[in-house]
Amino acid sequence: MTIYAHITGWGMSLPDKILTNDEMATFVDTNDKWIRERTGIESRRIASDEDTTASLGAEAALKALEMANLNPHDVDLVIVSTSSPEHIFPSTASLVQDRIGAINAGAFDLLAACTGFIYALNLATQNIRSGSIQNAVVIGSETLSRLIDWTDRTTCILFGDGAGAFVLQANETPGGVISSILRSDGSGGDLLSVPAGGSKLPASMDTIQAGKHFVQMNGREVFRFATRVMARASQEAMEKADWNVDDVSLIIPHQANLRIIDAAARGLKLPLDRFAINVQKYGNTSTASIPLATIEAFEEGRLQPNDKIIMVGFGAGLTWGAVAAIWSGPLPTEKPVNFTAQRLLAAIRSRILRLYRRIEGFIWGRGKSA
Ligand code: UT7
Question: What is the pTM (predicted TM-score) of this model?
């Protein structure tokens, strides 16, 4: 019996604050015309003090679970793909698992930069198709605005914050994620990086003064790399799925730069209207960009059940990859899950567990000193 991994729910979460190009031009040496012409970006969302990578990711995940009508208790795996994790550890995925009340799930972060969502989809799919798990939540979440040097016009105009999530579920009906290709070329690691804050260059006065905790990028080289790999990766995923380009209804590319998407379209000999594009509204939300663009395409009526789609990304690492999938939608379920109660329960459970741990620690400590 073959098991397939269907995309049965999706949700997104965006910070309220919209930062336009004109507003940006008031504090950094740039202008709306340059940004639009060179990138296609018109505005981006910026996380408030209350928004975190876990809070945005959890909100997106809860919406996705609600759409799939899947009880958080039935989630087996939570993967958060992110380049802006809340900490080196604990993983942002564990924080999300707690917030959504996925009490029976394993959780981990995946770092493949802007390609991360593609890698995470592949991983969740392989787990489901092997029969090892039934249900996974895959989240791309970023608060990259916290890692940006807001005086550096070559990077700060590009990035934005947000999160998107998919629920993947096992089902015997053919469909869901059909093929994927994952690639990496670490020789280009220096082209796009946050150099300090890891074990090689731990935080110090020197690293802070040198701005090494901010995103640094060789834009031209990353641009050249991206235009080389996007069409090729899409083509490879199609070949692996045994599809040709005419079978595909929609290509959902990583939203980094309209000119890069345009180059991919030319590489595939497809008109731009076969691509999902929302870079103008949100800028480059890194690993969140593919789920955000997919969900908006669905909301615009551009995705129907059984449509064949390609999701394709590139990013730091260097990494790139593509997924060929058949769009599904929620599986039939018997009993509606009460998500208001689930949200409340998850919050109460988390508080009780913390309190219990403190009381237990106190009693255990007293017992030891007696
Ligand atoms: O998820 C992956 C993340 N990264 C990417 O996808 C980045 C890929 N690269 C790009 O998207 C483009 O390379 C950029 C948008 C970053 C830059 O566009 P470009 O057409 O490659 O510009 P450039 O770096 O060649 O710079 C052209 C000119 C320079 O001035 P001069 O030397 O020609 O006088 C820059 O100083 O534009 C200037 N410039 C700006 N001017 C106004 C660079 N940034 C800005 C700016 N506003 N924000």
Answer: 0.96
